[in-house]
Amino acid sequence: MSRVISAIAGLVLLIGGVSTPAVGAAADSPLRMATFVSDATLPLGDVLYSETLKTIEHPLLAKGVVLDDGQRRYVLCVVDWCTMRNATHVQFQTKIAAAAATSPESVAVQCVHQHTAPTFDASAEQLLRQQADPLTYRNLKSLDEITDRLAAAVRQALDRLQPFDTVGIGQAKVDRVAATRRVLTAEGRVLTRWSSCRDPALRAMPEGDIDPLLRTISLLAGDKPLVRMHYYATHPQTYYLNGRASYDFPGMARERLEQEEGVFQMYFTGCAGDVTVGKYNAGTPEDRAALAERLFAGMKASITATQTSPVARIAWRTEPVTLAPRSDGARDPEQNRHIVADPNAKTAERIQAASRLACQTRLREPIVLSLLELGPARVLHLPGEPLIAFQHFACGLQPDRFLAVAGYGLGTPGYICPQRAFAEGGYEPSASAVVPESESVLQAAIRRLLGSP
């Protein structure tokens, strides 16, 4: 694993501090694509989110598409996992890249972010095992098996590459799903409306600051759709922490649509760091089914609204960004090193300290953002849990152009908040691993990627 991390570090240094465009082949070179899917479910008995996996309600899937322009390949992959931090994300990205015969910076790996799914930090696990009194928490063998399975699925997809010449873009409003988690009172207090909320007063508060639009990108051969990619910003969970693996209501809507339409469907979560379904969810199976139904309706409406255009080129741009780690309070590195090494410390405290140390180490290196362009369709891939303000910012730079945003790539930064959130308070800034000044740094990188001065 350390060799893999070193390879990525070398790649980042090679990219340097400037945006790297990768423009596709000439217009007479046909574009090709192939989809793939792989089971990404951990074995029973492994640690899921923070509890032992006891039952599998739905298989957790890694779904993706390989794009080929005759000169280079690009891969979009979205996984029914909560979070991939540090070496975990590296392992997914590098194995997919090797299988697709491309480079890691040409691969975007995002999580849907369900909490009935793994949150996995292989770097923290390695750190725990290196102590004089070692601690084993995550099953690294399971990670190897899942990523090997995924790589095999990508390799097999290369045998199914088929031409596409048309791209479709559509969008539609989703009814009664997303609402802000950061409910501001008249006095300026921040109330937290969690993903599951049974407080009638909180549920009665307005939806607040969200992006109500679900955006869909379709790739077609003529008028035949080959894959649809949906993008919507909300935390994608209803109830969890009961040892159950599930792709929750977004997966339910996604797989139902795939079965009904007969077209491969992918679902990405946007900048949903402060957006949940708590206004419309009390944590019941009935609420989950209703949310899946309304999200499904939004997907269908977005498909109906799709407009198609010929496409003959792929553009892929990358931009390295350095988000400085916080070291205040409980994130003090010296304090966490002591906790990790202390055999008398509580197990949960050692695990948390190892994760903080691993994330601080990774944040010393740049994180590579990417932008895919296919004709009028553009997709921005972001790390961590960006708050909805970053989606508004990115889409507002060029409001007359279509842009879909996928968050939840490399999970290391945690919540990426606007600077004002740290003054307002609330859960998200308290859980952020990066400094308040990260807002302007990330915004500048997004501007460069989108070519917006």
Protein architecture, described:
This protein has helices at residues 2-15, 87-100, 122-129, 140-157, 200-204, 248-261, 285-304, 333-341, 347-362, 388-397, 419-424, 427-430, 438-450; strands at residues 20-23, 31-39, 55-56, 61-68, 73-79, 83-85, 107-111, 119-121, 162-164, 166-173, 179-180, 182-184, 190-192, 213-221, 224-232, 244-245, 264-269, 275-276, 307-310, 315-321, 367-374, 377-381, 385-386, 404-406, 415-416. It contains 13 helices and 25 strands. The protein is globular. Residues 1-18 have low confidence and may be disordered. The protein is α/β, with parallel strands linked by helices and 453 residues long. The strands form eight sheets. The protein has a five-stranded mixed sheet, covered by helices on one side.
Unreliable segments of 5+ consecutive residues: 1-18
- Spatial strand arrangement across the major sheet: 1-20-21-22-24
Number of helical stretches of at least 4 residues: 13
Q: What distance lies between the first and last C-alpha atoms, to the nearest angstrom? A: 39 Å
Proportion in helices: 25-40%
Overall pLDDT score: 94
Shape: globular
**Sheet with most strands:** 5 strands, mixed
Number of strands: 25
Rg to the nearest angstrom?
A: 21 Å
Strand content: 25-35%
Short description:
This protein has 453 residues and is α/β, with parallel strands linked by helices. It has helices spanning 2-15, 87-100, 122-129, 140-157, 200-204, 248-261, 285-304, 333-341, 347-362, 388-397, 419-424, 427-430, 438-450; strands spanning 20-23, 31-39, 55-56, 61-68, 73-79, 83-85, 107-111, 119-121, 162-164, 166-173, 179-180, 182-184, 190-192, 213-221, 224-232, 244-245, 264-269, 275-276, 307-310, 315-321, 367-374, 377-381, 385-386, 404-406, 415-416. The longest helix has 20 residues, at 285-304.
